[in-house]
């Protein structure tokens, strides 16, 4: 289930807030300039589906977000435990970093967690199918797909190299719970 947990940056043990209500999630995040929306993601996708199928199914909302936010391109990323170099892929975004452009993802299947660090707090957003999250350019954050990842997401880009991450050098990510979909209640 999609979930927002808000922590003080100094205390990863006792969250200030935890909610699975999409309206509350969006309301808390919009104050910090983060876009969260629920899109209908109820079209079953066959296991062998390719990125083109995913983009066709969601053509309407994709076009709307591109127009509203100035994104020029999209692609589809699908990660499973059998994806090549999955541990390396996970590690790539586990440390706090920023991007030159907004990082927007729409989850079609599976789940993963974004941790957004701003205003003295960490906003942990577990995204599942139907969740659109857009983190503004320059906002420190990290991303955990979990040790046994499984998700499909549409990525939005303003530039082909927009996804390139610049590390902040802050080690805060190591102090916060990693993403483990089987142990959500202990996170
Ligand atoms: Fe990122």
Description:
With 187 residues, this protein is α+β, with helices and mostly antiparallel strands. The chain has helices at 22-30, 51-57, 59-69, 86-92; strands at residues 3-8, 17-19, 35-38, 73-79, 97-98, 103-118, 121-128, 131-135, 141-144, 150-157, 166-167. It is built from four helices and eleven strands; from the N terminus they run ββαβααβαβββββββ. β6 and β7 (121-128) form a beta hairpin. The mean pLDDT is 91. It has a single domain (3-180), classed as Jelly Rolls (Sandwich). Strands 1, 2, 3, 4, 6, 7, 8, 9 and 10 form a nine-stranded antiparallel sheet that branches. The chain has a two-stranded antiparallel sheet with strand order 5-11. Bound molecules: fe (ii) ion. Belongs to the acireductone dioxygenase (ARD) family. The record marks 105 as: Important to generate the dianion. Fe(2+) binds at residues 97, 99, 103, 141.
What is the helix tally?
4
CATH hierarchy class name: Mainly Beta
* Helical content class: 10-25%
Give the structural class.
alpha+beta
Pathway: Amino-acid biosynthesis; L-methionine biosynthesis via salvage pathway; L-methionine from S-methyl-5-thio-alpha-D-ribose 1-phosphate: step 5/6
Protein name: Acireductone dioxygenase
InterPro entries: ARD, ARD_bac, RmlC-like_jellyroll, RmlC_Cupin_sf
EC number: 1.13.11.54, 1.13.11.53
């Amino acid at each position: 289930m999609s979930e927002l947990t808000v922590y003080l940056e100094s205390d990863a043990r006792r969250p200030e807030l935890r909610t699975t209500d999409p309206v509350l999630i969006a309301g808390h995040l919009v104050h910090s300039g983060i876009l969260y929306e629920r899109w209908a993601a109820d079209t079953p996708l066959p296991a062998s589906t390719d990125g083109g199928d995913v983009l066709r199914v969601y053509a309407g909302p994709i076009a709307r977000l591109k127009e509203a936010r100035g994104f020029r391109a999209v692609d589809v990323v699908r990660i499973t435990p059998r994806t090549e170099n999955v541990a390396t892929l996970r590690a790539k975004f586990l440390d706090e970093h920023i991007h030159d452009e907004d990082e927007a993802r729409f989850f079609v299947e599976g789940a993963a967690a974004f941790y957004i660090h701003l205003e003295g707090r960490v906003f942990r957003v577990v995204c599942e199918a139907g969740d659109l999250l857009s983190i503004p350019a320059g906002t420190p954050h990290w991303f955990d797909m979990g040790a046994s990842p499984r998700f499909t997401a549409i990525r939005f880009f303003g530039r082909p190299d927009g996804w390139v991450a610049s590390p902040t050098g802050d080690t805060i990510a190591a102090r916060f719970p990693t993403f483990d979909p089987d142990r959500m209640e202990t996170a």
